[in-house]
Amino acid sequence: MPQSMFQSSIPALDINLAALSGLLDKAAAFAAAKKIDPAVILHSRLAPDMFDFVRQVQVVTDQARRGSARLAGVEPPSYEDTETSIEQLKTRVEKTRAFLKGLDRKAIDASAEREIVIPLGPDKTGHMKGDDYLNHFLLPNFYFHYTAAYAILRHLGVDVGKMDFLGKIPIELKDKVKA
Fold first, then answer.
1. pTM for the full model?
2. Calpha distance 171→153 (Å, rounded)
3. Backbone angles phi and psi of 17, in degrees to 5
């Protein structure tokens, strides 16, 4: 059976949002242990022309919320971009996860062939079939900003690694069978 649009989107977004919440916990613990003002973390960036950590987290949640809403054919809740603390960012992530959990699986599955309209600045809109939107716009943008947020923390010395990035993926560990 082919994988559905819902299965290709919502679980992946949710797993990574949960992992992002864990990264935020590690960032807060790092700031406390090193006696660093958390604002230093929040406003750090990898390059002068890239978003800072706060904005990366905001965009991750925007991509998940708005993108999944487009697939479901519903209006996403609106968030103000006013977070000034790690705890406020965690709240934003959890609100996003709660929104995803309430979306209609059948509506998302029905979006593969439906036209998705994406605002692209003040004068243009993009138009894509739902499956193209998911695979070539939503997921790449989500992972780009999620990776940038992770990389900022790693660059600052926060003790995060691949398993923190991956989160609780659906994997079963088994012992190797010896021949």
1. 0.93
2. 26
3. -65, -40
